[in-house]
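Key result, reporting period 2: structure in, sequence out.
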């Protein structure tokens, strides 16, 4: 159960509880949320890394089977609360873990989605926003873990920021064997955000 005095927001027809010490929906979250809505995914097996409050999990759980993970136990509990109050609890599994580490490596998911921490930092300051050197260390880990668990025709959907070391990141993506396209973008006074979709290059070599 949740307390009636917990702050909540209404996003479309979802009631979303905001939880203490959990990354709240922000500009990057909403950009990814809108992109997911436009994709209209149906009957897919989806994984979300870093569920936070669970807004993206809610959007995906309505018509898909989803596995949501987060390193922050409070975030996992928050996602669970929001799934329950929106009647979507039976469509999702939750794991408190780092990325997808406990999930066996195989062709499991049609889509893997994440909004990674991407602020460049030399030290691990806050797991909600610290992206490591160049702002890409966490993203590279998520990409590597995702590639090992993605179906042959599966896709990765993620947030990319102009604050990241994009040259190094795209080189890493290329080395993994993926091609990148942008589905949507939005400029802010301090950065430009993109929603990237990654597909295996091998699919286009025939």
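The corresponding designed sequence is given below.
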């Amino acid at each position: 159960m949740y307390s009636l005095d917990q702050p909540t927001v209404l996003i479309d027809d979802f009631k979303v509880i905001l939880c203490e010490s959990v990354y709240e929906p922000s500009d990057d979250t909403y950009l990814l949320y809108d992109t997911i809505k436009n994709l209209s995914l149906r009957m897919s097996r989806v994984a979300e890394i870093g569920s936070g409050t669970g807004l993206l999990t809610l959007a995906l759980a309505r018509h898909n089977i989803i596995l949501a993970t987060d390193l922050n136990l409070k975030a996992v509990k928050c996602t669970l609360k929001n799934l329950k109050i929106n009647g979507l609890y039976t469509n999702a599994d939750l794991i408190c873990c780092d990325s997808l580490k406990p999930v066996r490596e195989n062709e499991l998911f049609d889509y893997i989605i994440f909004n990674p921490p991407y602020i460049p930092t030399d030290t691990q300051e806050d797991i909600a926003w610290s992206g490591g050197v160049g702002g890409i260390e966490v993203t590279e880990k998520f990409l590597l873990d995702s590639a090992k668990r993605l179906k042959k025709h599966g896709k990765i959907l993620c947030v990319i920021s102009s604050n990241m070391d994009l040259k190094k990141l795209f080189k890493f993506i290329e080395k993994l064997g993926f091609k990148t396209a942008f589905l949507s973008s939005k400029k802010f006074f301090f950065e430009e955000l993109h929603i990237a979709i990654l597909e295996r290059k091998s699919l286009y070599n025939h």
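The helical segments are 27-39, 55-61, 73-85, 137-147, 166-176. The chain has a mean pLDDT of 90. This case is discussed further under Risks and Mitigation.
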